[in-house]
Amino acid sequence: MPRTSRAVKLAALPDGLPGPEHFSVVDVPVPVPADGEVLVRNRYFQVFPSLRTLIGGGVKGTPFPPLRPGDTLFGAAVGEVVAAPGVAGLRPGDLVRHWLGWREHAVMPAGQCAPLDGTLPDPAAHLGQAGVAYTALARDARVRPGDTVFVSGGGGGVGSLAGQIARLLGADRVVGSTGSPDKAARLVSELGYDAAVVRGGRPIAEQLAEAAPGGIDVLVDNVGGEQLQAAITAARPGARFVLVGTLAGQLAPDRSGTTAPVEIDTFQLIAKRIEMRGFGGLDDAGPRPEWTERVGAWLRSGDLTFPHVRVAGIEHAPRALQELIGGRHLGAVIVEL
Amino acid sequence: MPRTSRAVKLAALPDGLPGPEHFSVVDVPVPVPADGEVLVRNRYFQVFPSLRTLIGGGVKGTPFPPLRPGDTLFGAAVGEVVAAPGVAGLRPGDLVRHWLGWREHAVMPAGQCAPLDGTLPDPAAHLGQAGVAYTALARDARVRPGDTVFVSGGGGGVGSLAGQIARLLGADRVVGSTGSPDKAARLVSELGYDAAVVRGGRPIAEQLAEAAPGGIDVLVDNVGGEQLQAAITAARPGARFVLVGTLAGQLAPDRSGTTAPVEIDTFQLIAKRIEMRGFGGLDDAGPRPEWTERVGAWLRSGDLTFPHVRVAGIEHAPRALQELIGGRHLGAVIVEL
Fold first, then answer.
1. pLDDT of B85
2. CB-based contact (8 Å) between A49 and chain B?
3. What is a single molecular function from GO for this protein (chains A, B) (predicted)?
């Protein structure tokens, strides 16, 4: 086993969008697990846009502290157990998922990682965006046959799966939003959306009224801002909204706060009895969580594809984040070590 | 039976706050019920602040059309059946509740009125604000023992009951907001609030942080605007918000749109898994709805008081609305005919 390992740290706070120059890939000693801890060699980790919010200072009053220069980045990861002294049920070689990505080796208390159960055909699918998409739709938004579903950020890591899963759960019409006409075309041709709206052109509310003329029953919101406003305008009575991400701020080149403040008219929420909730987290306590069962079956049958881009080598992770924020990719962005 | 009856119509659109000069009390023929319709002589109706929103032009995209000059106002009412030709189960003298207040006589299809079942000791309590308060807390916000509850507009028709009902459902600490230090004192001394915050003084978020230092689990929002923002800041993870009213706009002297737009940071909703929903309406289909059973028992035992002001005579209804919007009263404002 090597004595040193690599990790990505925040080197400097960006003024606008973060680029590779704001990160450093540093050599660190391989951590030594204490009794009850697990040492993992990471195989995959996920690059996710909320990092920009945390780099930009976080959001006061939330449980997530901001990232400061010198901090190691983090995110969903899948790795192989190297050692787990005094931990029952984990052996070297077992695959686990956890939250300490952006480093080649990670050490954590046994309770902070979970063994992969083999329900998903691709270990990288355990990074969780499929679980977020499934759980947001099935549990939080309670998609029902016949629903019209709008997925903002429809080509992102969560959105590229949510559009497909909405249909598999019985939605009648699925509309996505994305950042360019090219990607809008791919949403329809590759990801099964019935229609796509494009930000930066005509008002989203106007485009959405055409794409979903009968209104929407469900929103999976990865964006916030104007897209959330448009969804409120398009909502049918009793619509269920689940808020997952705030790309509106995270993708904006001109702001460093990077959240997605939005002006909402609460009279509309009342008059239409709209339900809007922050995504409630994965239900993955049980031995075989519902989402891995369902998503695993769909992936094996080919009903669901897992759109993602793999970037090889931890040294390319900062560029992967830059490309993700720049909207270069469709689907999840995964760094493979 | 008289041939003529009186009704209140909108006479002119106000520029700012509506006053008696914007309404006219007119003589109209007593309507004649067709087969399957019910003619009701109203005994009470409720004056509610959302009328200002409808007078101010309504809100686009909602099911409520604006009120225009010449339109008769409306609102929850309780009255006595005068005639119900061809309607099974309703006899002259029966009390019913319905939505055609602001007139001495009303006629409607039988399906649009519901008989009072005697579960509430005061027929005026059937006007529904107790039902809104109970249902918002028990069903929509799922108040649990130990919760800290914030009721914005804590002295209003719904709020004055919600504060008391939150406690009866097991809330540990109940904080209300209101428009003046005088009313704040009455919230604590008469309505059982543990503490009250006052709008128009120091920032609500600052006052709320002191009144609920551990944060809030539940919001019953009758106000919107700054108070909703403050509640988001004060929310504990998993907080449940139910949106009932938009007094922030309706009480404002300087606006005629009269809704309550508010800037929300959706990242906070996500990070804290906040659930926010427009009030879902009363469950009052069954023969004895849950809210009338529970509220009736509390009213009879004296655990709950029904704070309200009665104004006698339909000709005073416009002034009652003006006083309601001016924040003159604590509790519901009911016109008695």
1. 96
2. no
3. oxidoreductase activity, acting on the CH-CH group of donors, NAD or NADP as acceptor
CB-CB neighbors (< 8 A) of B232 in chain A? 61
Which CATH architecture does the domain made up of A129-278 adopt?
3-Layer(aba) Sandwich (3.40)
Contact state of A263 with B261 under an 8 Å Cβ cutoff = yes
User: Residue B277: which of A61, A63, A276 has the nearest Cβ?
Assistant: A276
Residues of B in Cβ contact (< 8 Å) with A262: 263-264, 266
What are the structural domain ranges in chain A?
A: 4-128+307-336, 129-278
* Segment A110-122, tens digit of pLDDT: 999 999 988 899 9
Smallest Cβ–Cβ distance between B264 and the set A262, A277, A280 belongs to A262
Q: What percentage of chain A exceeds 70 in pLDDT?
A: 96
Using CB atoms, which residue from B59, B264, B273 is nearest to A280?
Answer: B273
Cβ of A63 within 8 Å of Cβ of B271? The answer is yes
Q: What is the ipTM score, two decimals? A: 0.92
| CATH 3.30.565.10 corresponds to the domain B4-128+306-336 | no
Chain centroid, CA B246 distance in Å: 11
CATH topology of domain A4-128+307-336: Quinone Oxidoreductase; Chain A, domain 1 (3.90.180)
d(CA B294, CA A34): 56
Pairing mode, if any, of strands A4-10 and A23-29? antiparallel
Ramachandran area for residue A224 (φ above 0: left; ψ -120 to 50: alpha; else beta): left
Question: Can you give the length of chain A in residues?
Answer: 337
Q: Do B245 and A278 touch (CB under 8 A)?
A: no
Q: Do B224 and A266 touch (CB under 8 A)?
A: yes
pLDDT digits (tens, 9 = 90+) for A127-186: 989 999 999 999 999 999 999 999 999 999 999 999 999 999 999 999 999 999 999 999
Same fold, A4-128+307-336 and A129-278: no
Overall residue count recorded for chain B in this entry: 337
Average pLDDT score over chain B: 93
The pair phi, psi for residue B329, each rounded to 5°, is -115, 160
Q: For A224, which residue in chain B has the nearest alpha carbon?
A: B266
Question: Are B275 and A271 inside 8 Å of each other by CB?
Answer: no
Structure tokens at A95: 């695959």
Element (H, E) at B129: helix B129-135
pLDDT tens sequence across B276-322: 999 988 877 666 789 999 999 999 999 999 999 999 999 999 999 99
